[in-house]
C-alpha cells in the first residue's frame, strides 16, 4: 500500500505517474484558478452588459470597435467561462450519470458544447471589433 | 450472510438530513451553475446576432427586450451573482475560515441575500441609465 510506513518508495515516485487515474488534482485546481479569474471578469462583464442594455446596433458596434477594454474583457470572460463550465458540468455528469457509455458520451458532448460556446463568442466579438 | 449484507449501514444521503441553509445554498450553487451553462447560449446568441448585422441584432434586441426576455435575463443575472458569491463563499471555506457554527451561517445568509440584492441593484441601475 502507498501509505505503508515501511514502504521504500519516495513521495515523488508515488505521484510521478499519478496512479491509475492518470491525472491528479488538475481538475480541482483549474476550477479554482478559473473561478478566481472569473470574479473580476464577471463584474466587468455585467458592467459592459448594463452599459449596452437598450442600446441600438451602432452603439453596440461602437462599444466593441472603438474601445479596447470591452472586447478584451468579453473575450476573456467567454473563454474562461467556457473552460470553467466544462469542468463544472463534467463534475455534475460524473456525480449523477453512472452508465459508463452514457457518461463517456456526455463528457464528450459537454466538451464540444463548451468549445462551441467559447469559440462562437470569441469569433463574434472579434468580428464586432475588427470589421 | 445475505441478510447481514442487507443490514449494512448505508451512507446517509440528501433525504436523510434535515434541510439546512448551508446545504440548500450548496445545492443552489450547482443548480445556478448548470443554469448559467445553458445561459451562455443567450450571451453567444446576442453577440453572434450583433456580429451578423443590424437585422439579426434587431431580432435579438426585440427578444431580450420582451417581458419574457427580461424575466429570463433577470434570472440569468441572479444566477450569475448567486454563483459568483457562492464561489467566493466556497473559496473562503477552502482556506478553512468561517466553518464553525455562527460564522458559516452568517456567511451563507450574506451570500443568499447578497445574490438577490446585487441582481436587483444592477437591474435598477440598468433601467435608470437607459
Compressed to H and E, one letter per element, the order of chain A equals HHHHH
Shape of chain A: elongated
Cα-atom radius of gyration of chain A:
21 Å
Low-confidence stretches of chain B: none
> Largest inter-chain interface?
A-B, 34 and 30 residues
Briefly note the CATH topology name of chain B.
3 helical TM bundles of succinate and fumarate reductases
Mean pLDDT over the residues of chain A: 90
* Overall pLDDT metric of chain B: 91
The counted number of beta strands of chain A is 0
Q: Can you identify the CATH class of chain A? A: Mainly Alpha
The H/E string of chain B reads HHHHH
- Output the CATH class name of chain B: Mainly Alpha
Largest sheet of chain A: none
Oligomer: heterodimer
Classification by helices and strands of chain B: mainly alpha
Strand proportion of chain A? under 5%
What class, by secondary structure content of chain A? mainly alpha
Number of domains of chain B: 1
Question: How would you briefly describe this protein structure?
Answer:
The complex is a heterodimer of chains A (131) and B (130). Chain A is mostly helical and 131 residues long.
Topology:
The complex is a heterodimer of chains A (131) and B (130).
Chain A: H1 11-16, H2 26-52, H3 57-66, H4 68-96, H5 100-130
Helix pairs in contact in A: 2-4, 3-4, 3-5, 4-5
Chain B: H1 2-6, H2 21-52, H3 54-65, H4 67-94, H5 101-129
Helix pairs in contact in B: 2-3, 2-4, 4-5
Can you give keywords for this protein?
heterodimer, A: 131 residues, mainly alpha, 3 helical TM bundles of succinate and fumarate reductases, elongated, B: 130 residues, 82% helix
Structural summary, described in words:
The complex is a heterodimer of chains A (about 130) and B (about 130). With about 130 residues, chain A is an all-alpha fold. Chain A has one domain (about 25-130): 3 helical TM bundles of succinate and fumarate reductases. Chain A has helices at about 10-15, 25-50, 55-65, 70-95, 100-130. In chain A, helix 4 (about 70-95) packs antiparallel against helix 5 (about 100-130). Chain A is elongated and about 70 Å long. Chain B is mainly alpha-helical and about 130 residues long. Chain B is about 80% helix and about 0% strand. Chain B has helices spanning about 1-5, 20-50, 55-65, 65-95, 100-130. Chain B is elongated and about 65 Å long. The mean pLDDT of chain B is about 90. The interface between A and B is medium-sized, with 34 and 30 residues.
